[in-house]
Amino acid sequence: MSRIAIIGGTGLSELVGLEATEIEQTDSSYGATSSDIETGKLEGKTVCFLSRHGQPHRIPPHKINYRANIDALGKLGVDKIIAVNAVGSICKSMKPKHIVIPHQIVDYTYGREHTYSDSAETELQHVDFSTPYDDDLRFLLIKAAEQSNFVFSGEGVYACTQGPRLETAAEVVRLRNDGCDIVGMTGMPEAALARELGIAYASLCLVVNPAAGLSNEPITMEDIQRVLSEGIVDVLVLLKSVVAQLS
Length: 247
What we know:
By secondary structure, this protein is an alpha/beta fold. It has one domain (4-112, 130-245): 3-Layer(aba) Sandwich (Rossmann fold). The chain has five helices and eleven strands. It has helices spanning 66-75, 135-147, 169-177, 190-196, 221-245, and strands at 4-8, 19-24, 37-42, 45-51, 80-89, 99-100, 104-107, 152-153, 157-160, 182-184, 200-210. Strand 3 (37-42) and strand 4 form a beta hairpin.
């Protein structure tokens, strides 16, 4: 039987509606996970939930132990992951609260522990990463968004930057010229690590602000938090819809 995990990002440090929860005890080979992994029932299905930035939100993007998080989920038998990401919009048609289900990613990060092939004791893998997101999971997310009549994009190129600072206007111009549509800080190496472990992985992105230089207004955390509190309601609707469809 399939076991799905949801990784919550900024704005989703707990999974509302997860019932009969218990803390899963698991030892990762790569250190401590960002938070305890909660397992419970959502829409009648068993779901694992992990808060990427910790509980409370405290771990910056470049300090997250992505290897421990994915390794621990894999050891719990998770074979599908939906990752929730808050992003900035590079594409002007993607306004705040717009939902994006990306199909591609460009990695601009550096210095992160990004692979399990890191020693003579581990198998050297050259995984195919041509399509970084699982098409079946993406299809379920797209179908759920269509049925809910949400404003969304079923494709998009996610630019993953180092953080925790936001980008400069010139950097956003570069990302746009590179063909990117949205920008976040946590999409990698999470997606690649899941691929190395053979776990299907998809991203559900919520646009929380126009990227630097694309608005006349400054980017403030107050505005981002407001959009998050409103938009995360739609994100939860999609997550529940997808979980309900899984066997």
